Amino acid sequence: MRDDDAMDLTPTLADMTDRIHAMRPDPGERLIIGIVGAPGAGKSTLARALTAALNDRAPGSAVQVPMDGFHLADVQLDRLGLRQVKGAPPTFDSDGYAVLLERLRRDRERPIYGPDFERDLEQPIAGAVVVEPSVEVVVTEGNYLLLGSDAWPRTRAACHEVWFVGVDDDVRVQRLIGRHVQFGKSAQDAQEWVLRNDEANARLVIDSAVGADLQITMR
């Protein structure tokens, strides 16, 4: 993955921060911006860069809250027989994610804690993210914010806008294979996992892009 400063984006990062600063949430609400993209599209990189850009303008004003913290732990995936499709919609706690986003939007009276995902362990970590009452913007990124089933429509409704980021499929697939190798899979196993599992999920995400408020291209 390239450095944040080197990202080639259309619209630009400055355009995106201007768009956010022009939004006017209801009194007492915190602004929630969702970023959606297929696996390997660069969601986390964009969310991190956008959060940093917002904090450059107003320190402490933005926090990144990832959907990946709502991965079901492997012990639950084993119980449900879903370990071989880890990353698919049923392998997330979509209800828990929806409830957290609803709280983040409407509750600015106390600190709110959320989970993160530890890549080295490939497991969620409870309470790893904190959003203080002073935070004005939450940037949340995940594959499935625009899906129409289970609790995913609630996650969409909790966001003021959801943006879709796209990248060339060849770039995205190679990026995914490299990521799986980095975290312990052989090159052969990584390719098999991506083509069997991640790409099935990618088709779901790409098909949902029509519901996005903004289309972003990453090169």
Instruction: Write the element-wise H/E pattern from the N-terminal end onward.
Output: EHEHEHHEEEHEHHE
- How many domains in all? 1
What is the 3D shape? globular
> Any low-confidence stretches, pLDDT <50, length ≥5?
1-5
Derived from helix and strand composition plus strand pairing, the structural class reads: alpha/beta
Number of strands: 8
Distance between the termini: 11 Å
| Spatial order of the strands forming the largest sheet | 1-8-7-2-6-3
CATH topology: Rossmann fold
Helix content: 25-40%
User: Can you give the mean pLDDT?
Assistant: 93
CATH architecture: 3-Layer(aba) Sandwich
The CATH superfamily turns out to be P-loop containing nucleotide triphosphate hydrolases
- Over the alpha carbons, how many angstroms does the gyration radius reach? 17 Å
Helical region count? 7
Main β sheet profile:
6 strands, mixed
Beta-strand content = 15-25%
What's the CATH first level? Alpha Beta
